[in-house]
Description:
Elements: H1 13-20, E1 25-27, H2 28-33, H3 38-46, E2 51-54, E3 57-59, H4 67-81, E4 85-87, H5 89-96, E5 108-112, E6 119-121, E7 124-127, E8 135-138, E9 141-144, H6 146-157, H7 159-171, H8 177-187, H9 193-202, H10 210-221, E10 226-233, E11 239-246, E12 251-255, H11 263-282, E13 286-290, H12 298-316
Parallel strand pairs: 5-7, 12-13
Antiparallel strand pairs: 1-3, 2-3, 4-5, 6-7, 8-9, 10-11, 11-12
Protein name: Very-short-patch-repair endonuclease
Organism: Barrientosiimonas humi
InterPro entries: Restrct_endonuc-II-like
Amino acid sequence: MTKTTPEKRTLDPSLCLLAGERAGLFTTQEASAHGMTPTQLRLAVKLTLCRPVVRGVYSIGPPPGSREGRLAELTMAMLLICPTAAATGRSALALRGIPLFGVNHERAQGVWTNRSSQHATAHMVVRRPLVAPEVEEHDGWLLTSLAWNLVDLARDAGVEAGVVSMDAALHQGLVQTDDVLDIVDRLGTSHRLASVQRMVELSDPRSESAGESRLRLDLLEGGIEVEPQFEIRLASGQLFRSDFRVKGTKVLIEFDGLVKYAGADGRDVLAREKAREDALRAEGWVIVRVTWADLVHPRQLVARIKAAVAATLQVAG
């Protein structure tokens, strides 16, 4: 009589406990160590008791709800498969919760802390660094330092991606410009360092969101110089702050993420902002609102702001 493997319709509690300590993740080897056969693991997936993340790693949790969450999950899976690796670049920034823009969310990025050779698959790449980076533990995961994360990001994804993340790190007081420049010096003549140096030149801790960072770069590219977080005191004594002022003009630029207008509280916010803008306009200020959709067409956006500047100059004249 042929023996059959008994079906498991629940996961081993100790395996679930282990996974729960690591964002819901466990490896094939760990499942085997807890008594699961490959057939039982496939059945567990079929019964939605777990789901595959990458080859050799499973999750007992729901799929991530964002691209950043997906990258973070892939990164943790990479670190489970490659325990002597440290996450770097976009991967480490995703685990730190630093805003990202213009990166590949479907491939984790790491470096070896030993002399292992490069390991690459569709969803991860772990390289052997030419210069050994500083590493640290963050929520139980091994990462290169934040300054190294930013350097690797700019080298990999370019200046704009680097500025968005570095602005956020500077704004939160998590890194200093000199930390990044020290790494540039250590890397010497390594390739793509020009992108890192340009990232440092353009970064500004006054930007409070990824949208503001991207907008500032688009305006700079279009020849518009702005002053972030510009304060205006009206004749009434009221003090207002705008995301940007076009330097030397009475044109203010507000980046509008629209999230703050959601729900009942959003109506109150909208009413207060209307009153604020009415007060500013009464004293000759012009407000240009910019949304995420506007950033898709930067040339049109720059033209609109230049037109607003020209209109204010005509009125002043």
